[in-house]
Specification:
ABC transporter transmembrane region fold; Type_1_exporter; two-stranded antiparallel sheet; 264 residues; mainly alpha; transmembrane helix; PGP-14; ABC-type transporter activity
């Protein structure tokens, strides 16, 4: 918020940085980040530690099963990374096109004027149209999250089928004893359970990643005019003449703020 106060005027002239959108970002991004910095973060760390431990145990007892199980986990990881990237792109696009929050804030700020002009229905229609657009975007994200949930929650059964298939072959050929083979299979299945337990927080982490990126963009953005608290303060002497000065903001070049200014 402090950094926003020091931004140049052209920053706020950009429709993407309308006051309503900035207020929505400040009000929603921080809670989205906070939502994962709690017990859910610990659950994910525990799950990652369990996966690493299970892979090590599986390699100790039956490397054939361990290689297959590790390959399945890596394949699932690549699928989740791809889905996360897709959802992040959709989140950023949704934030750029989010008009519902801006419209709601501006309507509430000017509600008395709207009531006096009897234009409540018109502004409600604007808000309803913007909300429906956001709803369609959320439904698209919901489909991707549903695909991720179905894959991760059924991952243990895929792991069971493939590891038992390989384990039976290993026992039949006599490469490993049945005791060591089953220890390796059980270790990989426990790793799959850890994946299932941590994957349920996938939507929150993707949302937090997007929110963190937006917040840090605001925090580290430097004004085009420079920092107001720094810079040179040279001593200026002489005469200054303004002759036929014209000025307009970059985002609205056809709407001059000053025109034909004469000043000495």
């Amino acid at each position: 918020f402090r950094n926003l106060l020091y931004q140049d005027a052209s920053y706020f002239d950009n429709p993407a940085h309308a006051p309503g959108k900035l207020i929505t970002r400040l009000a929603s991004d921080a809670p989205n980040i906070k939502a994962v910095v709690d017990a859910r973060m610990l659950q994910v760390i525990y799950a990652l530690s369990a996966i690493v431990a299970c892979i090590v145990i599986a390699f100790i007892y039956c490397w054939q099963v361990a290689i297959l199980g590790t390959s399945l986990i890596l394949l699932l990881a690549f699928v989740m990374i791809g889905l996360a990237y897709k959802i992040s792109v959709m989140n950023i696009e949704q934030i750029k096109n989010d008009e519902a929050g801006r419209i709601a804030i501006e309507i509430i700020e000017n509600v008395k004027t709207i009531q006096l002009l009897t234009r409540c229905d018109m502004f409600f229609d604007h808000y309803e149209t913007a909300s429906k657009q956001q709803k369609r975007s959320e439904l698209k994200k919901g489909m991707i999250e549903a695909i991720n949930y179905s894959i991760t929650q059924s991952f243990m059964y895929f792991m069971m089928c493939f590891t038992y298939a390989v384990g039976i072959r290993v026992i039949y050929q006599g490469d490993k004893s049945s005791d060591d083979t089953f220890k390796g299979i059980i270790a990989m299945m426990l790793g799959a359970v850890a994946v299932m337990n941590s994957a349920q927080y996938f939507p929150e982490f993707v949302k937090a990643k997007t929110a963190a990126g937006m917040l840090f963009n605001i925090i580290y953005r430097k004004p085009r005019t420079g920092d107001l608290m720094e810079g040179d303060r040279p001593e200026i002497r002489g005469n200054i003449l303004f002759e036929n000065v014209k000025f307009s903001y970059p985002q609205r070049p056809l709407q001059p703020i000053m025109k034909g200014l004469q000043w000495t």
